[in-house]
Fold these 3 entries.
Entry 1:
Amino acid sequence: METEMTNWIDNVWPKFLDAGLSIVWAVILLIIGIKVINVARKLLKSALERSNIDTGVVQFLDAFVKFAAYAVLILALLGHFGVQTTSFITILGSAGVAIGLSLQGSLSNFAGGILILILKPFVVGDYVSACGCEGTVAVISLFYTTLHTVDNRNVVLPNGSLSNSNITNYSANEIRRVDMSVDVGYGSDLKKAREVIMDILNQDERILKDPAPIVAVDNLGDSGVNVLIRPWVKCEDYWAVKWSVLEAVHNRLNAEQIDIPFPQMTVHLDQNS
């Protein structure tokens, strides 16, 4: 009996010892892995916060990195105990492909939302033009961006299409140039017309002195001389300045008896026909 007990201990004890050592190494690997993951997450969050990335993006990336890192750590622990992880990874990969194909559009919008939040081609409050629409950015979510138009409509754009389109951000800079023009008749005093227009610009306090406004002849049209009007204003004054300057130019030119021509056509009638 004693001999059988001794043989059993001799056979089983090494297995217990190996199992114990394997568990100890697994615990050490788990502790080190958790510490490495925490350090990596802190470094990532610090780098993202220094880049002035939105809080929502930082939280999303932190959660994604945490999930991916713990998944790798669990697979490493399973491999340490001799569990075959190849088939497990294959199943996960197949499931991921199937889900990705079924949610292809949503994933495209999701990826586009991440790019927009990270790269910041615009922020909430900017006036932008994209995908054939324009308006003030009201909401930026992970899947859609909502624009509020000047006629009080909400336009919802998918982030996948938005991130791949040309985006014009009218609010990106503090100042903006107002592009206008007016035609002056060939028989009018062109120099006087330019002086009148420049006087209008100089009297408007919303128009910046630097850069200086420009009034110049652009081309000689069919009906008159085209004069460019190029003042610089703050972005928030753009529309108000454009509307008021055009009205003032019309009224002042008429008051100074400077002709503003309109398209004309000369018709010759054949008397013999």
Entry 2:
Amino acid sequence: MSDSLLIEIEQAGARLSQVREMVARRVIGQADVVDLALAAILSGGHGLLVGAPGLAKTLLVETLGTVLGLDANRVQFTPDLMPSDILGAEVLETAPDGGRAFRFIKGPVFCQLLMADEINRAGPRTQSALLQAMQEHHVSVAGMRRDLPAPFHVLATQNPIEQEGTYPLPEAQLDRFLFQIDVGYPDRDDERAILLATTGAESAVLEPVLNTRDLMAMQSMLRRMPVGEAVVESILDLVRAARPDSGAASDLTDAVAWGPGPRAAQALMLGVRARALLDNRLAPDLSDVAALAGPVLTHRMALNYAARAEGVQLPDLIARLVERELGTAAAA
């Protein structure tokens, strides 16, 4: 590792510590959720926040937009939302001289951080309108390509409890999310702190810690961060072992209907670097692979009917895969 890269990593780690401290002013507890959301953005990807209502998912996205200095927009997904409500549309305008011309009005997707709130409440056409934007960072409206701002990230939320009137996200769209971030309930101490902080007369003041240039520099530096051969091989072993046609242990793969593709390995390769950077480490290790296995694999795998009938749970299966492929070294 060059001295210049070493200095960049150390400086980025210090700045990210400030980011986490600033976010903690508004978002109390949920440290793992905050780190995963930051890791997704640092990796240049998108995150799917899954949790019950009232767990600060929306607040987290708004807070990250402010602290990271990003231009943020929010879209509340509803069954009547149309693709043009997200992408924008051309309108016919009449000039003072009587001439007419089309003018493009940008939709909320033209931002740097888009919050897609309750994404599974919109119909398939509207959900698919995000696909090209999330993968290609541009959209096509009226046959014309329109580039999105850089950087561009989507943090979507989803309520796992109330499924009536919702539309499950297709596998192709789920695969575009770098991580599925499960948001749980706070513990008693954190909930007490939330109660005191949010029912008083004063609220925490947030200040930007980074700007767009800082964030993009970190994203570029992250891709130059070294990854050891043992970590690379462990990523390949884990992802390939999760596929039903991998020839791995039958008690695990026989339960899988379909497994993760190469994007899962790419997500792990970027994610372990981001996790190491957030922990002020110079390179990732096997513990990073083990920690990110769930967020990377959960939405890229599905159990078959027989496994579901037997009560097999996907998180348990992934944990067994991690233990089998990474062993005790991952827990060190």
Entry 3:
Amino acid sequence: MKIAQIAPLTEAVPPRTYGGTERIVSYLTEELVRQGHDVTLFASGDSRTSAELVPCCDIALRLNPRVRHDIPQHVMMLEQVRRRADEFDVLHFHIDILHFPVVRDFAERTVTTLHGRLDLPDLAQLYAMFDDIPLVSISYDQRWPMPPVHWIGTVYHGLPRDLLRFRPKASGYLAFLGRISPEKGPETAIEIAARTGMPLKIAAKIDKVDQSYWKERVEPKVLRNSNVEFIGEIDERQKADFLGNAAALLFPIDWPEPFGLVTIEAMACGTPVIAFRRGAVPEVIDDGVSGLIVDTLDAAVDAVRRINGIDRARVRRTFEERFTVERMCRDYVAIYGSLSDVIAKALGSQNKRAKNAAMMTMST
């Protein structure tokens, strides 16, 4: 199958540090190639892939100080995709909504995975207008705010089995990994650590939009708590040690999280997750098996005290059963195949109508 993967240009594929969507695009692309598919990746020029790379900008936009706005770069990428669209059996988009008007004429050959939140007030009207675009959710909870649209599947994220090594024993610290923003709950993580007396290590990205939140709300709490260490952004190699050595990953989110990639990264290491019951958390974490799901700060504090009761080997087995890249790729290939079946039926109907029309013409 000839497949185009269209990635955001904000980060490289895979990203050097933070970047969940681009990381998933990379894992999926490499597994599709490994399984023998002919894959073309539209991404930033500093991406690394075994697929054919179409560089749509020199480097990831977040790393380019000359780029002020990312829309022009993405529009130019879409023009390249449009010009080559007929080369592919399936075009798989990971860029949110920008491509919707461009692909209208060949929407039946497209898949769009929505990686973000869908509860924002302006989105319902837009998705209602483009209700013919085939969409994939990354959890069932992600779908709830949407009007009736063309959902064709839900595919949970997956990781390569050997990406993060299982660690049967942990050091005595809690981990927070992700992004410094109010919805991710770094202040809550610090409070949990303070109340349990356990060290907390924070490895996180700080976007420009969250700089004031960091300076005014989070950094003072870090400085006041001697058991809290802020590390900053980390790469894939550092992530293995950071998560693998943690007693637990804290995931104290306060928003409708569509998936939570870091939770399955922790599971791959055998590290259990203590997570607030928001968004897709109950779909991803098996309560009492791969972690503990809580509803309050007090319950989170109690969960830290009970976390040693979670079997780390069983956490790893849960990852292998549910969240490998092989399973993710298999799910997407099934969706690609379902699109091909629909196209084949449509072409068959068109051919039948054309044949009947020709016979009628001949008979007259």
